[in-house]
Design goal:
17% strand
């Protein structure tokens, strides 16, 4: 179950190996600066738009968590990945009409931003006999392209989700605005950590996950308490052009 036989050694897999080594070094250095252990940080490889061969290459190098944000695309890739003992994260905004397929395909949904979506996931998880771990996606900027629940509504949403029997609230996630200087993202990461601390006090338990930080700013996120980082291009390289991506959507 641990290996799939579709990943010959190529220039691409060699590049992924070198990239993964650099990312692990950066994680370790950031953790040391924050007086944390590198093992406290889970690396999620954002494999959306990349082919199954790239995912298998990363898996064979020890990566076990992968993030996808298109249900249909992952459906097309999944048959070639079925032998991998990996954890599949749905990341980003999930449409309610795709909840059934998402619950079937993914181990966790990292991006719940409304009670209505949580209730649909709860119903689908119950129908499939599952308990699905989720993250609440928080929006801390006014960018129109960003999804997530507003800061003022996070605690109320968490209190509504916590009793749902077939969902397990495991923490929060957030994507800050993009800054050329990643240091400018630090206040956003710090704010999400503060919201998580308040959430723990309100709920009476501490959802462990704080998912924040991407290829260009994950070191700052780790310094501010991230337990998961989502890294795509720094691991897999530049994303395939749109024409090539079309073939991944199934």
């Amino acid at each position: 179950m641990a290996r799939a036989k579709i990943a010959p050694v190529t220039a691409e897999t060699t590049a992924i190996s070198a990239n993964l080594d650099r990312i692990r070094e950066r994680i370790a250095a950031a953790a040391e600066r924050a007086r944390r252990r590198p093992e406290e940080v889970t690396l999620v490889g954002v494999s959306k738009t990349f082919p199954p061969e790239a995912i298998v290459a990363a898996y064979e190098l020890g990566l076990r968590h992968f993030g996808e944000n298109r249900v249909q695309e992952f459906e097309g890739k999944q048959p070639k990945l079925a032998e991998l003992d990996a954890e599949w994260h749905f990341i980003g905004h999930l449409q309610r009409n795709k909840a059934r397929r998402a619950v079937h395909l993914f181990h966790c949904v990292d991006g719940v931003d409304s009670l209505s979506l949580a209730q649909v996931l709860e119903s689908e998880a119950a129908a499939q006999g599952k308990r699905v771990p989720i993250l609440i996606e928080v929006r801390l900027s006014d960018e129109p392209t960003k999804t997530g629940v507003a800061e003022a509504n996070v605690l109320a949403l968490a209190e509504s989700i916590a009793p749902l029997a077939n969902l397990r609230l495991r923490g929060l996630m957030m994507v800050p605005p993009y800054f050329e200087d990643p240091e400018r993202a630090r206040p956003y990461f710090r704010k999400l950590r503060e919201i998580k601390d308040e959430l723990s006090r309100r709920l009476g338990f501490a959802p462990p996950a704080l998912s924040m930080g991407m290829s260009h700013d994950f070191e700052i996120a780790i310094e501010e308490g991230a337990t998961e980082i989502r890294v795509g291009t720094a691991l897999f390289g530049a994303r395939p052009p749109a024409k090539a991506q079309a073939g991944l959507r199934g």
